[in-house]
Amino acid sequence: MRGVETRIQEIRHRIFREVARMAYHTEWPVDKRIEELPYKIIPGEVGNFRNDVFLERAIVGERLRLAMGLPCRTASEHAPLSDNIEAADRDETYYTPPLINIIKFACNGCAERRVLVTEGCQGCLAHPCEEVCPKGAIHLDRTNGRSYIDQEACIKCGRCADVCAYKAIIVQERPCAAACGMGAIHTDCNGKAGIDYDKCVSCGMCLVNCPFGAIADKSQIFQVIRAIQSGERVYAAVAPAFVGQFGPKVTPGKLRSAMKQLGFADIFEVAIGADLCATQEAEDFLKEVPEHLPFMATSCCPAWSVMAKKLYPDHADCVSMALTPMTLTARLIKREYPNAKVVFVGPCAAKKLEAMRRSVRSEVDFVLTFEEMAGIFDAGHVSLADVEEDPAGVNDASADGRAFAVTGGVAQAVVNVIRQTHPDREIKVASADGLAECRKLMAAAVAGKYPGYLLEGMACPGGCVAGAGTMQPINKSKVNVGLYAKQAQHQCSSETEHIKELDKLVD
Q1: Model pTM greater than 0.85?
Q2: Could you give the domains of the chain?
Q3: Which one of 9, 57, 229, 304 has the largest count of C-beta atoms within 10 Å of its C-beta?
Q4: Are 285 and 403 in contact (CB under 8 A)?
Q5: Collapsed DSSP state (helix, strand, coil) of residue 430
Q6: Tell me, what DSSP letter sits at residue 316?
Q7: What's the average model confidence in pLDDT over 205-229?
């Protein structure tokens, strides 16, 4: 639903904006303010989005807590919203698991899977739905001329839907479960959705596909603002998928000006780290494949790499050990500014999970999505379209580095680096996007179908431009990233200025 301003997007934006406002207004007692906010966000006597105004406020309350980085609670817990608020009211708080949370009393309790005959049924003579049903669960109701399904006998195979000439039979799946490529969504004893965190890789696809807005992730909006207010030198590392996310008139130069207006010391584009990552992966591929490894998988997408290591631990060494663009950019910033705090601003929920790793905590201090950043701009009264253009803009990375944001871009960048020194070597590539397809790709590679290949996996369908924290239509983002890439001074990752720093950064 990226690019469609639904009621869910509206309420999420309100919450992010109010949490940011609460951080900016240091004169407001945080414990008192958070108790008031559900009544500000959901005013009046009747529901705005649901029939029950009290339920709406309860859901908003839990969303506010998650946006503050606090744990999600159940309906059975009796405690004020401000419970343990002191844990969030500071300028340095790490994400604590779980990152992705289901607000149970917001969940609709959707059926996992069901097959239904709609009013579009014409009661046709052929009646192929009845013929293909392996359980004899479909019959013609001669009183109304339509097919009906015996739900007790139905095994939800969907064959009837496949053969219906009128598409009058539909297969409904729980949207969050259908979007989860890891099979991590299940049904609890109350019929509500639950998450198996042993399977979850925090890609956030369940979050953006739940039509009831029952799934939310934690945020560090409050802590980022508090860090800036405390006098910390906070640098923003902005992912290349940012183009178009804050409006069609927002150029890289305007974004830089706007971030500085908010108090950020400066911004760096994460495509710089992408260039470093591509160069490191190219070196690793040449060194390891096929002499030591049967294939090599890219490391850029944390959800993909975690999935591969979880499901195929015996082939964990086939996932590149190269540092991700986020981590490399953060290291570059802290090498230049040792006392800096770094906030990654991007499209990805899984980057929050990556930043929780002990090996990354010292590099990346905060992670925000584009959607959360938009709430900060709003709260800070910064109109990005109207700010003065910074003539320096953001112009450091290569075209290939910027193209990391789109499916196929990572592998192509690695291949282009290899061709600089080994023009005659053939590099075979296979790629997949969406975790379900990524699992198939990895399974095939483990089975020996991709010998000597470079594998690229992207957890989000379409690549980073489809991340859970994006706001514009995915296809539009792809176009915008492509145009942005063409503006780069260099095409290949290995041609950029920062490559000479790589050895120092990966020691």
Answers
A1: yes
A2: 1-89 (no CATH), 113-173 (3.30.70.20), 223-494 (3.40.950.10)
A3: 304
A4: no
A5: strand
A6: G
A7: 96
